[in-house]
Design a protein that fits this description.
single chain, 3 helices, two-stranded antiparallel ribbon, alpha+beta, globular
Length: 145
Amino acid sequence: MGRFNLNFLDHPTRTVADPKDYEDYFLNYSKPKWRTDPSGASFRYRDDDKVNYTCTLAHAPDYGILVWLRSNSVARRETYWDYVSLHNADELDEMVDVSSEEYYPVGCFIGPKQAWELVKAFLLNPTEEPKSDLLISTSRLPPIR
């Protein structure tokens, strides 16, 4: 059986994925709750075959939450899938700095309730490739620095 490693805002690291622990941050969103840690969150799951599944969040108070979902194997140097949330394809070339020199496309920030849909699906079934109209393949993005 695989293992979770969950880092969310200023919470202690957890290894049990209970969506109820995070739901309020999305469904009752407030900017001050998210400002406690500019790095957002990183939810990781590693299966028995050492394949990594990652859900990374970035918060930009003026734009919303970016959700990045990825599956890869470091040992095999393979990426199986790699998606990021999409709000507006016309804003993919405009970048926002979410932390010191950490830039993401403005068009990839979605509302908290939409972000929660993606996060909850990941927490409940991290090994399933996501299928959602809220996602775009990272291969279609401009370079992120």
